[in-house]
Amino acid sequence: MRCPRATEVEAARDGRLAERGAIDRHLKTCADCRAHADRLDALARSLRALPDVPEDELAAQRARHRLLEAYDAVPVACVGRRGRWIAATAALAASVAVICLVAARTPTRPPMMSTVDPIVIDAEHARWSRIDDATTTTVRLDDGDARIHVDHRGVSRRLVVLVPDGELDDVGTTFLVRVREGHTVEIAVKDGRVTFVHGHDAPLLLTGGERWVVHEPVAAASPLPSPSPAPTPPAVAPRCISSAPSARIHEGSAAGSAKAPIDDELRDAISSLDAGDPTGASKKLREIVTHYPSDPRAEDAAYLLAIALQRASDTVGARAAARDYLQRFPNGFRRAAIEPLAR
Amino acid sequence: MALKPAPMTDPATDAELLARVSAGDLGALGDVYQRHRADVRTFVRRAMNGHHDTDDVLHNTFLTAARIADRFDGRESCRPWLIGIAARLVQQRSQKLARVARYLARLASARLVAHDPVPELDARNDLAYALGHLSAAKRVVILMAEVEGMTCAEIADALKIPIGTVWTRIHHARRELLAALERG
User: Are A280 and A272 in contact (CB under 8 A)?
Assistant: First the structure.
């Protein structure tokens, strides 16, 4: 580089020059600077064209699974300095709230989405009430949707949600409860854990990403995602369906309901999956999918089949199973979870 | 009866996905990962000179992104933002390694170099070899500028360093790369 203005070529390239018209005009007449500009362009092109080592799809899926597990495992502890500040604020707010409660022990309806209350309830169009005592907050939800967030970082209050046909006990979480005409029709847990006692059934533990829905048709219900276009029997027992990657399924045991063979087969397949035998589980699940195509539980089986094949390192089979699920259940609950597997 | 294909829906934007991630939606994090993983991995691999820690840094990049998803500024693509996070992690890692190497050198009273020969053997051409011989700080900024197309201001913002430092590092990186290529 003999031209004294050659340094301006790079400066213009990096946005260091306030006005680059002069150097552009200079480039038209100076071969030295033009050659330098060409060298810089060629270097950039070569850097962009550097070969990369491709990664196989299975390793990518494993890495994705590890990432989601890692993020799921530390939903609260990972919030950093900002989170600690929020926790401190929540603790202070809780102290103020306790003082206020001692001063006026009258059950009141709190403002929507309070920013200082560790228990935040968004239930604008619902019929509900709330009573706080020294250790427990009791929310009674008679009808409508309530989105509830409980921050247990600052305080250790117990939250009980009474619904017409049961009771939820929260362990620090964010969740949605939906009640229609005296029946709980949906519980969706975003994170944390919730214990749900439905009627006289055994308690059911729901964790982050899991959802319990009732399959009975409910008049005037707000649109809920249909699990399957397949015909649904008229009086199916309430069931909880997992939409989390962990692929667990809990089933409420409705009193008096006859147990179909598919129940045992599905339970057997899930046991195999939980026991670390994805190949065995996939065989059982494929049989369920084939033999009970119109049963509502076929959707669970189809979803778990894709998961089992993925865990068995059968990427091609998992992709085919995921695509089959999406075709058969275009409005299925696990659509979002299974779409990445289908690609 | 023929089955109908699933209805096509508009894919969520990066900003929408990250908003869902900040609200704790695991599925959205999976989608962000699926969408940008390959590009971020390529950047990390090159910035780390093909080191075997690449996947750890990639993992931490997305984990960090999930933790600070509420700070995403909502631009069309979150790729430069992810690259910025990855670049900081690469730098932190190289600084840590350098500190360990210096400490060991003092202990042994001998010159120790944190040097892995494998990436050199893997380098498929002169440029890859020359890139591998740049310092991590220079390698990161030249890749951000020339491969990722980020402006110097964006790089300075992502790495939390003065823009003058970015200009200097890019200039020296180019000079070293061109000199190495000319030497053959």
Answer: yes
